[in-house]
Amino acid sequence: MSKKPAIQQFDTILQMMAVIPDEQAAIDHFTAIRWKNGAFCPLCKNADANRIGRMNRVVGAGENQVKTPTNTYKCYACRKRFSIKVGTIFEDSKIPLRSWMLAIWLITSHKKGIASTQLAKDIGVTQKTAWFMTHRLRYAIKTQSFNRPLDGIVEADETFIGGKEKNKHAHQRTGGKQGGKGKVAVLGMLERDGELRTGTTPNLSAKAVQTVIRDNVKSGANLMTDEHGAFVGLSDAYNHHRVNHSAGEYVRHYILHTNGIESVWALFKRQIIGTHHFLSPKHLNAYLGEMTWRFNLRSMGEGDRVNALLAQTAGRLTYKALKA
Questions:
Q1: Contact yes or no for 295/264 (Cβ under 8 A)
Q2: Exposed, middle or buried by CB within 10 Å (0-12, 13-18, 19+), for 253?
Q3: Distance of CA 268 to the CA centre of its chain
């Protein structure tokens, strides 16, 4: 193997474009990130860098023969050739990796994400291509699991996601009210000054809600919720405090509230209304995952978030699987 390329550092989008001036620089940057801990074959998982070689292109003949390195590698364990994109969300994509990096910057730096229509204009692709790109990135975001149990003071809150009837086309209207047909129940848990967990739930029954909470919140934590009946029965595992919103109570003793997680839901709903306008229930968890990932890495610099996402792009999402 030749000398490993370096991981570039940048803080602004202009700096990123400057240190990644062309497609080869983007490929070198991604190679440095993906092979940070050493080269490996994505086909047979061989991790012996001495048995992975970079292929050369030969130009000319005799004394005039010149060898230049290509972006194709050969694994001498399985005898197969591959590029650095194989086994990632970029595999088989005709979009330049530099354009992918710009898309990553836009989706990770904007608090409310970016619409596929806007991304299409920004990087010069069709809306269909931009939509597929954003979902590939959400697929990569999903691979980052935040598994540490939440602890300390944890706020939990339920809500329903679904467009207002007056804002829907006639064929999308269901006539449902809060919690009715056409809306999806979601649950969020926020550790104060810590991480966020979100996801859809089949319903807001005590069994469904409490199973998620017990799976994500450490026993003994201080749990703050509203008065929803699904939260009744959690006192056996938590120091459970409930705020009675229906009685006009939102804060008690300064620290007993669910304002943090409610602000998260307000941000997500503004993301839907202001950026995406409509979300399919089928893909709701992907959008929740995107928002949660951004929130949990909020202390990172913009460029560091780009590199963090590039580091977790293993796996593939085909268009057929996305539309299935």
A1: yes
A2: exposed
A3: 14
DSSP conformation class of 272: I
How many C-beta neighbours within 10 Å does residue 60 have? Answer: 9
Q: How far is the C-alpha of 233 from the C-alpha of 47, rounded, in Å? A: 50
Measured between alpha carbons, how far is 204 from 38 in angstroms, rounded to an integer? 46
Structure tokens at 208: 């469904």
In angstroms, the CA 303 to CA 193 distance is 22
pLDDT score, position 162: 79
Residue 107 in this model has a pLDDT that exceeds 60: yes
Q: How far apart are CA 218 and CA 246, in angstroms?
A: 28
Fold entry, domain 153-279: Nucleotidyltransferase; domain 5 (3.30.420)
Q: Is the pLDDT of residue 271 over 90?
A: yes
Contact 165, 124 (CB under 8 A): no
What angle is formed at CA 288 by the lines to CA 283 and CA 289, rounded to 5 degrees?
95
SS3 call for 226: strand
The total number of residues shown for the chain amounts to: 324
Q: Of the candidates 108, 104, 147, which has an alpha carbon nearest to the alpha carbon of residue 291?
A: 108
Residue 77: helix, strand or coil by DSSP? coil
- Residue 170 — pLDDT band, cuts 50, 70, 90? very low
Sheet with 239-243: strands ordered across: 196-200, 184-191, 153-161, 222-226, 239-243
